[in-house]
Amino acid sequence: MGSIYLIRHGQASFGADDYDVLSPVGVRQAEVLGEHLEQLGIRLDRCVSGNLRRQQHTANAALQRMSQAPALDIDEAFNEFDADAVIRTLLPDLLPEEPEALHILRNGAQNRAEFQRLFAKLIQRWISGEHDKPGLQSWQAYVEQVEGGLQRILEQATSKQNIAVFTSGGTITALLRLITGVPAAKAFELNWQIVNTSLSQLKFRGSEVSLASFNSHVHLQLLKAPELITYR
C-alpha cells in the first residue's frame, strides 16, 4: 500500500495584519518536522501543497531539512476554506444573539477563547447547509473541491509511494469526512485538536483509501518544548 501524509502548516500569524505568514515558531515547527521525517528514513516520492503561503513555506522549510526531496507541486484543491468569508457572510445573522461578536472577532488575539467559541458557532452554521449564501462557497462544495484533489493524487500515484500533502486543518477535516464518513460536526470537533505540522497518515491501494493515523505530533513532543505545540 502507499501512504499519503497530511501535514498541517506551521503556526501562522494569528492576530497580525497578514495571517498567511508563518511565525518564527511555525518555521521552527516545519524544520523539526523535516528533521523527524529524515530520521525516520521516510523517502517522499511526491510533495503537494495548496497555494497558500503558509502551506508552501511549511513545505519548503521541512523539505530543506531532508537529504532527498522531490519538487513541490501546487494544487489549489488543498487550500484552506475561506474562513474570513464564512465569518463576514454569516456573522450578520448571528449578531442578534451575539451582540459583542463583531468586537470579539476583530480582536481575536486578545480574546482567544471567545473568538474560538464564536468561530465554532459560525462553522456549525456553515457546515449545516441551512445558511448558504450567494457568493460563499458551501461546505459541500468545499468537500468536493478537496475530494477532487485527492482523486488527482490517487490517479497519478503508483503503489507503495509516499506522498506528502502540506495543507490546512479544514482540508484535513474534509478528508476525514470523506474517508471515515464521520459527520461534519464531529469532524470539526477533531479539527480544533489538529496541531500545527502534525501528521495524519492515509493508506491507499488504487482508489481505496483508509485512515491509518491522525494528528501525530511526536516530533514536537520529543523536544519537550510546550511552546512548539500550537493549534492556529
Automatic annotation (TrEMBL):
Annotated InterPro entries: His_Pase_superF_clade-1, His_PPase_superfam, Mito_Ser/Thr_phosphatase
Keyword Hydrolase in record: yes
Keywords for the protein's UniProt record, in alphabetical order: Hydrolase
Keyword Translocase: no
Highest taxon listed in the record's lineage: Bacteria
PANTHER family: PHOSPHOGLYCERATE MUTASE-RELATED, SERINE_THREONINE-PROTEIN PHOSPHATASE PGAM5, MITOCHONDRIAL
Protein name per the record: Phosphoglycerate mutase
